[in-house]
Specification:
The complex is a heterodimer of chains A (300) and B (373). Chain A is built from eleven helices and seven strands. With 300 residues, chain A is an alpha/beta fold. The C terminus of chain A is likely disordered. Chain B is of the alpha/beta class. In chain B, helix 1 crosses helix 2, helix 3 packs parallel to helix 4 and helix 9 packs across helix 12. Classes of the chains: A alpha/beta (300), B alpha/beta (373). Strand 2 of chain A pairs parallel with strand 9 of chain B, so a sheet runs across the interface.
């Protein structure tokens, strides 16, 4: 008896991707496909691909797909979701697309609580155009358009997207993950699935930021680029959950019920205290009576 | 039905769009289209529709792109500077063969310009709604009734040819009130299905993609030329123009939209003086109603175009006339509307055989380049 432990997701077409060898797009794209398949949402999902390395993703996914202008994926996704509210809509965007030319669309879709899922690939560089400085390129990072290293005095600082979006009330989930190890890949998959589940529950805007590599434009081997990611990217972009509205709500509910319990306890303590006081009063009364009796006896 | 109501042009257009089955409006505030968006904001939530004020004109047109990709009847409205911002999205709509209604209630320009009526976006509307080969259908209403009538026509032809359609109005038509007969209402359920839409395949069909990217040059050329063939058919079948008093006319005035209203009055004035002037009023600006102009060539001594710009449509008239008779131009720009008396004088000058392109400048008429000698 043979058991299937792993197979290609039916949400992926047979088309060969255009990603470079060693690139992490393939991993993320697969996890998104697996998630949609596991949730049995393939027939209801519409994906929006950006301008960037994943521009051809409409050829790679077997759900309905819409190609968007550079940076506009959240606006396009908004138009789709508002037209087919029962559908599941996701965007798949890189750092230049999402955090530079499309920052306004990103922030406003987030603050509207647009019920879509954004898969955000942060590899600190423009990949498709050949390695230019991105809004998330690190201070000192050498790219084609920061040949002497990103000078924060003139080029400014990198943007931490999850931290920025976590301040907005419309965001249901903002989590940063990476895919540099099997353990982290599994954690990333869980995060992606949670985002789609939150969308299904209608909780609002969900974004999963994946800290990724770009071996080609970083000029490194795949394994070396993971090392570089761990040494340079992760300290600047710490992994973690930056906003989880559902968890916060659950915590608040539990805190409220805790508070209720405490109040009940206090009330019971208060009534105990009252009882004790009453008892003490009663004791004192008995003592008084005894004293009086003794006095009476003495008088007698 | 058939009851006339008094409405502003912007509101009449909004109501007509709703009656044409449009339930999705994405926009951004700008004068002088304000009443249109405000009307939608009030009505859409009451009829299960979507009114969404986007963060920018760019976002609004991309929301339109997404909604159209998902298969619904959708529109946006703006005014000149806002339409510039939408140019990117309009190019993508063209490239992905998506229908949508875009309303441009024009104002004075360039730059921030002004907020008074203008027709200076003629070139943008008919030539350059963004990068690349491509066109949008352009309708030019001249009355509040037409603001209303062209909404459903623009939606229908946009769907038929799978391309964006524009209503090119101006601040005058948007703001003025006239009696209007509203059309019968249809609902979104009455609209034909769009089997190409990306709305979730429900595991019942192959997946749809909405896309304008072709990395193989041959594929891109094929796709653009397929569209050109559609354009050829549209140019042959969809030209629309109104002819006023042209039967015996030898001076042909060409004017659209608000300018056509003035031209009409001017023609009445000069006819009283025995000048046989008539009007060609283009209703479609793309496709340009060349045939209406060409048909009048044998009887025309000269043409005069009147525009609220420095002379843009006049180039299309000259292309059609092709040097056979003089084509004069008279206009005002920056938000100033010419008086019938001014236009009547330009007609009289044309009748006398003068050849000119004239704009008023500091109380004098000055010649500009371009008039045929």
């Amino acid at each position: 008896m043979s058991e299937v432990l792993f197979k290609r997701s039916s949400l992926l077409t047979d088309k060969i991707t255009n990603y470079c060898p060693g690139c992490t797009h393939g991993i993320v794209q697969r996890m998104v496909a697996e998630t949609i398949e596991e949730l049995q949402l393939g027939g209801d999902t519409i994906g929006v691909c950006p301008v960037g390395c994943s521009v051809c993703a409409y050829d790679f996914y077997s759900c309905d797909m819409v190609q968007a202008a550079h940076g506009r994926a959240p606006a396009v996704a908004t138009g789709i979701k508002r037209s087919v509210p029962e559908s599941i809509v996701f965007t798949y965007q890189g750092d230049g697309d999402l955090a530079s030319i499309g920052m306004a669309e990103t922030i406003h879709a987030a603050t509207r609580g647009e019920n879509i899922t954004v898969i955000f690939i942060n590899n600190a560089i423009y990949g498709m155009t050949g390695g230019q400085m991105a809004p998330t390129s690190l201070p000192g990072q050498v790219t084609q358009t920061s040949p002497y290293g990103r000078d924060v005095k003139t080029a400014g600082y990198p943007i931490r997207v999850c931290e920025l979006l976590a301040t907005l009330d419309g965001v249901a989930l903002a989590e940063r993950v990476t895919v540099d190890s099997p353990k982290n890949v599994r954690a990333a998959k869980r995060a992606i699935k949670k985002a789609f589940q939150y969308q299904l529950e209608g909780l609002g805007f969900t974004i999963i930021e994946l800290v990724c590599t770009c071996p080609t434009n970083w000029g490194m081997t795949a394994s070396k680029s993971f090392e570089w990611l761990r040494e340079n990217m992760l300290p600047y972009y710490p992994l973690g959950v930056y906003k989880d509205a559902k968890a916060v709500a659950a915590e608040q509910a539990s805190a409220a019920s805790d508070a209720k319990a405490v109040a009940a306890e206090q009330a019971s303590a208060a009534s105990d205290a009252k009882a004790v006081a009453a008892e003490q009063d009663a004791t004192a009364e008995v003592a008084d009576i005894a004293t009086n009796a003794a006095s009476a006896k003495a008088v007698a | 039905m058939s009851e006339k109501v008094l409405m502003k042009g912007n509101e009449a257009l909004a109501e007509a769009a709703i009656r044409a089955g449009c339930r999705h409006f994405f926009g951004y505030p700008i004068t002088p289209q304000t009443e249109l968006a405000a009307y939608m904001a009030k009505r859409m939530p009451k009829i299960g529709g979507v009114y969404l004020q986007a963060e920018s004109e760019v976002a609004a047109i991309n929301m339109v792109y997404g909604a159209s990709a998902a298969g619904v009847r959708v529109m946006t409205s703006s005014s000149s500077p806002g339409i510039s911002l939408k140019a990117e999205g309009i190019s993508y709509l063209i490239g992905a063969d998506l229908p949508a209604l875009i309303v441009n209630v024009q104002r004075g320009a360039p730059g921030l310009g002004g907020i008074q009526p203008s027709q200076a976006d003629y070139w943008m509307a008919t030539r350059a709604n963004g990068h690349g080969d491509g066109h949008v259908l352009v309708f030019a209403p001249s009355t509040v009734q037409e603001m209303c009538d062209y909404a459903s026509l623009a939606f229908a032809l946009g769907d038929k040819y799978r391309m964006p359609a524009m209503i090119l109005a101006d601040g005058l038509l948007g703001q003025m009130m006239e009696p209007v007969e509203l059309p019968e209402a249809i609902t979104p359920e009455d609209l034909p299905l769009k089997p190409w839409a990306a709305c979730g395949h429900k595991n019942r069909r192959e997946h749809n993609t909405v896309n304008s990217l072709f990395l193989v040059a041959q594929e891109l050329e094929d796709s653009v030329i397929e569209r050109e063939q559609r354009y050829a058919k549209i140019k042959a079948e969809e030209q629309r123009a109104e002819l006023v008093l042209t039967d015996d006319a030898d001076i042909i005035v060409v004017a659209f939209g608000a300018a056509a209203r003035i031209a009409r009055s001017a023609i009445k004035l000069v006819r009283e003086q025995g000048i046989k002037a008539g009007l060609v009023r283009p209703i479609t600006l793309w496709p340009y109603p060349k045939d209406s102009i060409a048909n009048l060539l044998p009887q025309a001594k000269a043409f005069l175009t009147v525009e609220l710009s420095c002379g843009q449509m006049v180039e299309d008239v000259r292309l059609t006339v092709n040097g056979k008779v003089p084509v004069n131009f008279f206009g005002h720009t920056g938000g100033i509307v010419p008086t019938p008396a001014e236009v009547a004088e330009a007609i009289r000058m044309t009748d006398k055989g003068e050849q000119f392109s004239l704009l008023p400048y500091k109380s004098k008429l000055i010649a500009t380049e371009g008039g045929p000698k």
